[in-house]
Specification:
- This protein is an alpha+beta fold and about 190 residues long.
- The chain has a 7-stranded mixed β-sheet, with helices on both faces.
Length: about 190
């Protein structure tokens, strides 16, 4: 993780403060909230622009939640690429048994960016259930905040770099939307997933 931090600092042009971290990174992290309920009634927009309740994707199957932003210059792409590698390593008989919900935590992003990301990752995944089980969502600040707070995902917008400082992890949710597990970093063992 130190390597990713060093890369992010170099890319953002930030030097560590006396405490060891630049100001934006002091408020970034993940607070494990195992058993926490994510807000099923939170409204987002899917990649086509249709308003959706988060619960539409979480009520019947387990889900893998990826909190990213689509125009992230580095870390979010690493998270999604790591997820993709893990998904491709799973046996095909697991296809369709869980949902993948990717949510942008940048309220400035909209469905066109989500649609472009979905097209890219569904194509690269190449499995039959990919388009119907991998969802790319955007939303308003209130919905994003309720989801990220419930999941314990802390991030900060850095106006100096016009980027978000954030951690990297996947969050596994139970059917019904309770936090079951955190998978940290940008590489995820397929058996853990």
């Amino acid at each position: 993780m130190r390597t990713l931090l060093a890369l992010w600092l170099a890319a953002a042009g930030l030097a560590p403060a006396q405490s060891g971290l630049p100001e934006p990174l002091r408020h970034v992290g993940i607070d494990q909230r195992l058993g926490a309920q994510v807000p099923l009634d939170a409204i987002f927009r899917d990649e086509s622009g249709r308003p959706v309740r988060l619960g539409e994707y979480l009520e019947r199957r387990p889900a893998v939640l990826a909190l990213v932003y689509y125009e992230c210059p580095m870390l979010c792409t690493l998270v999604l690429n790591g997820l993709l590698r893990s998904l491709r390593a799973l046996p095909p008989e697991l296809d369709g048994r869980f949902e993948i919900v990717t949510v942008s935590f940048d309220p400035r992003e909209g469905p066109p960016l989500a649609a472009a990301k979905k097209a890219e990752y569904v194509r690269r995944y190449g499995r039959a259930h990919a388009a119907s089980r991998w969802h790319f969502l955007t939303g308003e600040h209130e919905s994003i905040a309720s989801l990220t707070q419930a999941a314990g995902f802390r991030y900060v917008f850095d106006a100096k770099t016009n980027q978000f400082a954030h951690a990297s992890a996947l969050i596994v949710l139970t059917p019904g939307g309770k936090v079951a597990r955190y998978l940290y970093g940008v590489e995820y063992a397929p058996r853990d997933l």
